[in-house]
């Protein structure tokens, strides 16, 4: 009978140590005799005999616990473990935005300390950035000279501006709504609502985001820069509207589509009301369509916590109302293109956009949160269709 050494594997005691501390090998001379019929006398079959290092060994971590580690560990468990208790209807899923964040690129690639900030800015949910960006991209393309493509650098600059502005708007919203979000199934795992980030950390991050937004405005002409900064009033006050009015989605439309005004001004140096105002009104009505559909996901929770929305206001009449908003949206888009002297391909693609919007409104199941979310996300394609429409219409004009 042979005797050999068995070395004990000692786990680290804290999350921070497990994630960040480099493990090392330390021999322990505690012999134990074990009888075995295995011809390989080592606990790990692939191990080679190198004295007391014949098995793997980790040192005992001496790092202390930090509050941030505990909060982050709690967030990781809550976001990665789906709820086993479904809500009424049986087709709802738990967690923020139906737990789309689970297994996202943020969890896979970003350092663990940066993950809550990326989720606070909704970097893993690009649909909001698209909805911010499309009206400004429409406006830039519409302002291009006849027969010419829009300025590509201007499009890129406004794309980054939409990304940073959307992130800042989400941070402001979560700071003001963190108590409400904690009571809503879809939003309770957000970093501020769940306590992973403190309000001070959220405010500090907001300051950084606003500097990035300002950096995208400064290269523009003075008129556009002032127009862009003026939108901050709408951004800061929007989260309060759900407490004050039954039409917070209309106020969101005024805020999120402000880029339709800035885009034209950035190219032309001023605003042409006959082109820009119909474009802006169309985008506001578009927002009333998609965000009313989106609000139907939360209507039960909104009733419990006492916040307002067009979903609650319109109730069973929602489809009739959003049909009306869709008609106004498409009519104003046609008027804006006509006043801009755009070519016939614009109107052909406008018919395609009509079909996409009609599909949303006619097929949405407002009692099914999953279907509401699908229809909401599909609006990135409506925005893309309209951008292509303006692009080809301007090239042919």
UniProtKB/TrEMBL annotation:
Q: Which cofactor does it need?
A: Mg(2+)
| Keyword check for Cell wall biogenesis/degradation | no
* First-level EC class: transferase
* UniProt key word Zinc: no
One GO MF term attached to the UniProt entry: 4-hydroxybenzoate polyprenyltransferase activity
Among the GO biological process terms of this entry, one is:
ubiquinone biosynthetic process
For this protein, what reaction is catalysed?
Answer: an all-trans-polyprenyl diphosphate + 4-hydroxybenzoate = a 4-hydroxy-3-(all-trans-polyprenyl)benzoate + diphosphate
Subcellular localization, per the record?
Answer: Membrane; Mitochondrion inner membrane
EC number annotated for this UniProt entry: 2.5.1.39
The regions listed as transmembrane in this protein's record are 152-172, 192-214, 250-267, 273-294, 321-338, 376-395
Q: InterPro entries in the record, alphabetically?
A: HB_polyprenyltransferase-like, Prenyltransferase, UbiA_prenyltransferase, UbiA_prenylTrfase_CS, UbiA_sf
Q: How does it sit in the membrane?
A: Multi-pass membrane protein
Cross-referenced Pfam families, in alphabetical order? UbiA (PF01040)
Q: Where is this region: Disordered?
A: 78-98
Q: Could you tell me where the Polar residues compositional bias lies? A: 78-96
Keywords attached to this Swiss-Prot or TrEMBL record, sorted alphabetically, are: Isoprene biosynthesis, Membrane, Mitochondrion, Mitochondrion inner membrane, Transferase, Transmembrane, Transmembrane helix, Ubiquinone biosynthesis
Q: In which pathway does it act?
A: Cofactor biosynthesis; ubiquinone biosynthesis
Quote the cellular component terms of the Gene Ontology held in the record.
mitochondrial inner membrane
Q: Give the protein's biological function.
A: Catalyzes the prenylation of para-hydroxybenzoate (PHB) with an all-trans polyprenyl group. Mediates the second step in the final reaction sequence of coenzyme Q (CoQ) biosynthesis, which is the condensation of the polyisoprenoid side chain with PHB, generating the first membrane-bound Q intermediate.
Family, as annotated: Belongs to the UbiA prenyltransferase family.
Question: Known HAMAP family for this protein?
Answer: UbiA
According to UniProt, the name of this protein is 4-hydroxybenzoate polyprenyltransferase, mitochondrial
Species of provenance: Pyrus ussuriensis x Pyrus communis
Q: What is the lineage of its organism?
A: Eukaryota, Viridiplantae, Streptophyta, Embryophyta, Tracheophyta
